[in-house]
Amino acid sequence: MLSANLVKNQEQEKIESKNTIIIICHGFSDTKEKLQYFYYPLAYQGYVILAYDARGTGKSKKTGKRSDFIKRIDDFKKIIKWVKNQDELSKMKINCIGFSIGAITVLSGGFLNSDIEKIIAISSMSHYKPNIPKKNPIVMLSYILKGVKLFPTLEEINQLSPYLLIKNAKKELALEEWNNLSKRVLLIHTKNDRVIKIKNLRENKLILESPDKNVLILKKGGHSQKKNECILVGTALNFLNS
Predict the structure, then answer these.
(1) Within a 10 A sphere around the Cβ of 29, how many other Cβ atoms?
(2) pLDDT tens-digit series, residues 185-199
(3) Fold that domain 4-241 belongs to in CATH
(4) Residues near 208 by Cβ (< 8 Å), separated by ≥ 6?
(5) Model's pTM, two decimal places?
């Protein structure tokens, strides 16, 4: 069972004014607590926050392996269903925000879900396989020790690559439905991200046909978005409130 926190403002009027729950998906080695700097200000504005420890991390450590990214996506989908089945939450709009592998989770697990109003993907991959650093033996060893699959199947690649999932959806969806789904995504990345390079954002932007207002590229901060805390919160609020 996954461990989660439901964070609310004490003022019911603020909650009713937003009528929105935001699901927070953290990165590979993070926990829900590490992102408190990000979602506490959102809760202060009246958004209800559901922040959870992904399998294999934090208080969900015994739930499964943190490197099982496919099951992380399945877990996310189950959380969406859980929210829809709770009397207190079922009538709220649903927004999702993910960081790194959490960004892959919300894009791959949420893009086709029309119950989700808005998606923010921070430091996301576009294609899974090219981002596995096979030419760097030290990094490869680190990935092996963490249980990350270096040679995924074609099916796994398709599920873990937002670009491919969105590309396939684009072929199948009617134009109006495609436009509604694609325009609700905000992409955020840094130019000096050495873990997931900036080309991933450009590829996701291209396939989503994202307008410039739905893309934020920061000069520095690396993969962890260090010292970008304030601008991340401000940008997220601007997008969520629009």
Answers:
(1) 12
(2) 999 999 999 989 999
(3) Rossmann fold (3.40.50)
(4) 166, 182, 185, 187, 214
(5) 0.95
